[in-house]
Amino acid sequence: MESKSEIGTLILIGTGFIVLLVLIVLFLAVFYQTYVMKMKRKEAELLLKTSLESEKQERKRIAADIHDGVSGDLNAIRNFLSVLYKTETSEEKKALYDDIKTGVEAAIENTRLVSYKLMPPLLETSGFLVALEDYFSRLNSKTTAKFFITTDLNAVDLSNEVSYELFRVIQELTTNMIKYGNISKCEIQILKDGLGYSICIADDGIPFNFKEMYVLSKGTGLKNISSRLKVIDAIFKQNQCVLGNEFVISVKK
């Protein structure tokens, strides 16, 4: 018959084994749950990335269709009106042709603007910085607010994917500034550091808290900004200002 000490030892060993087994089960459960959450997060990120890439390609296709199709047809109509104008002897009809031609030219300009908004051509051909300068030049010619870039860089070396998403973020921010911020000026400062680029966007408009507005907003603008920044793994923060707003985007090369 086993002694009490041997029985006590067996009980301790058994208890220890059970505790160890419970800990292993708990560890595996936590590990599995963490793994599942990680996989779901990766799936969500992949889905978001795929969705934004699909949107980009669709924008590109529609922009090309507008530029090559609609603009081409309108240009043909304008040229035909010019021929009619030159051969017409009636001043009344010539005035009518001239009015129609003016309307067609306005439509051509509008289609160019829509095509540009869908997919800025300079973004792929000339790079992020040139495309942004061109975009600001267009804003300055069409709004009372003044937009300008401050940088010592000749170019911003980013992939096409990062450049596109970053451009869309800035486009969304500046659109909100014009619509809601009542700004008179906006400055973008682009700096290069060891890891990538830092882009500071400052305006003198109505102050607002991005995080609070993100939660309260029923629109998609701010959520699109957050989604695009997440896809390119950029860091976004808002600095406190006495006047206006200041946002900083840090993106890796």
Automatic annotation (TrEMBL):
Keywords: ATP-binding, Kinase, Membrane, Nucleotide-binding, Phosphoprotein, Transferase, Transmembrane, Transmembrane helix, Two-component regulatory system. It comes from the Bacteria. Residues 58-121 form the Signal transduction histidine kinase subgroup 3 dimerisation and phosphoacceptor domain. This is histidine kinase. It comes from Flavobacterium profundi. It catalyses: ATP + protein L-histidine = ADP + protein N-phospho-L-histidine. Pfam families: HisKA_3. GO terms for molecular function: ATP binding; phosphorelay sensor kinase activity; protein dimerization activity. The chain crosses the membrane at residues 12-32. SUPFAM superfamilies: ATPase domain of HSP90 chaperone/DNA topoisomerase II/histidine kinase. Its EC number is 2.7.13.3. Coiled coil: none annotated. InterPro entries: HATPase_C_sf, Sensor_HK_TwoCompSys, Sig_transdc_His_kin_sub3_dim/P. It is an enzyme of class 2 (transferase). Gene3D superfamilies: 1.20.5.1930, Histidine kinase-like ATPase, C-terminal domain. GO terms for cellular component: membrane.
